[in-house]
Design goal:
The chain is built from 9 helices and 11 strands. By secondary structure, it is an alpha/beta fold. Helix 5 packs parallel to helix 9 and helix 7 runs parallel beside helix 8.
């Protein structure tokens, strides 16, 4: 790879975290971590039974807290800090493995497991402790108004204004470990390509929107992403 890029956007999905021991939460049979999506991942479910929904996400926290970044996460963090250009990670994952690896420019479009948002004042509480219907917002002091800061089905993705600007200005768009079927994230490559970016997909297999990518790299991301990052850094050193 001989080309230098000024603005790299990396979209990551469940595939990049799978090698850290985190299974894809939404399985092929439609269950969300062995629960019906309608029971734990919709606004209706939260309004109907907030105790149940809080318990579901509280139960996920220990697994995500102890998970460690794998070589793919570490390679992206190194690329951000050493590459002579901007590198931003846009992740669909609610874990914090990119941050654990050292990445600083990370946008969580689906939210984060270690956050709750107050439905009264809109402020975000960051905690790995349990959050429930008794939790008091530290900002407005109202109890019982905290919602997991997870984008439920039917809700708008987070950080989308910033993501849209990045997609319009990046010169390289990279997708790692995403299915390419869940919109609007599946359409990010189309926007980036329309505005002139090169596009590369990393995955174990071909995805439904593979025709939008200029290049496909198949294999485990823990191997392919570090090799790719090393090539980019090599390009910088040769410049």
């Amino acid at each position: 790879m001989s080309k230098h890029y000024n603005n790299i956007v990396v979209l990551t999905g469940a595939g990049i975290s799978a090698e850290s021991g985190l299974a894809t939460f939404r399985s092929s049979n439609g269950l969300w971590n062995n629960h019906r999506v309608e029971d734990v991942a919709t606004i209706d479910a939260f309004e109907r039974n907030p105790e149940y929904v809080h318990a579901f996400y509280n139960d996920m926290k220990p697994e995500l807290l102890k998970a460690k970044p794998n070589p793919a996460h570490l390679a992206l963090a190194e690329l951000e800090h050493k590459y002579d250009g901007k590198v931003t990670v846009v992740t669909q994952n609610v874990d914090t493995l990119h941050e654990k690896a050292g990445s600083e420019k990370v946008l969580h479009i689906h939210g984060q497991i270690n956050q709750a948002v107050c439905l009264n004042c809109g402020r975000v509480l960051e905690t790995w402790d349990d959050v429930d219907t008794q939790t008091v917002c530290p900002h407005c002091k109202i109890a019982g108004m905290m919602k997991p800061n997870i984008v439920f089905f039917g809700e708008s993705l987070l950080c989308m204004d910033e993501v849209e600007k990045l997609l319009r200005t990046c010169d390289l768009f990279v997708s790692i470990g995403t299915s390419g079927v869940v919109y609007p994230a599946a359409g990010f490559v189309q926007t980036a390509k329309y505005f002139g970016a090169d596009t590369i997909e990393f995955n174990l297999e071909t995805t439904s929107n593979n025709y939008l990518f200029d290049k496909h790299i198949f294999g485990k991301s823990s191997q392919t992403v570090p090799e790719f990052a090393a090539e980019l850094l090599k390009t910088k050193n040769e410049a």
